[in-house]
Amino acid sequence: MLKHSLVRKTRNRTINHGTSLVEAAKFLGVDQSTLYVALQRGQIPTTTRNGRTVISQAALMAYQVRTRPLL
């Protein structure tokens, strides 16, 4: 039970605060320059939190699904 509540808190923190651009590039497995190009093209929506640009985990996952190669 404790583990479940800990996971929920961690998940909510990521959702509420967003993912930094460095973390997002690592999550997607791409260079930061590739991520910046996608951001400039509007392919990934961003928000600003406390003066920093962040990306929601949902936006990252949606982008990953759209850009993954079909088998």
Quick description:
The chain is mainly α and 71 residues long. The protein has four helices and two strands.
Order of helices and strands: HHHEEH
**Can you count the beta strands?**
2
CATH topology: Multidrug-efflux Transporter Regulator, Chain: A, Domain 2
Unreliable stretches = none
Number of helices: 4
Q: What share of residues is helical? A: 55-70%
Q: Looking at the structure, what is the overall shape?
A: globular
Structural class: mainly alpha
CATH architecture: Orthogonal Bundle
Structural key phrases:
71 residues, two-stranded antiparallel sheet, 2 strands, globular, mainly alpha, Multidrug-efflux Transporter Regulator, Chain: A, Domain 2, 4 helices
Summarize the SSE layout with pairings.
Layout: H1 2-17, H2 21-28, H3 32-40, E1 47-49, E2 52-54, H4 57-67
Antiparallel strand pairs: 1-2
Walk me through the structure.
The structure is a single chain. With 71 residues, the protein is mostly helical. The protein has one domain (2-67): Multidrug-efflux Transporter Regulator, Chain: A, Domain 2 (Orthogonal Bundle), CATH 1.10.1660. The protein has helices at residues 2-17, 21-28, 32-40, 57-67, and strands spanning 47-49, 52-54. Strand 1 and strand 2 form a beta hairpin.
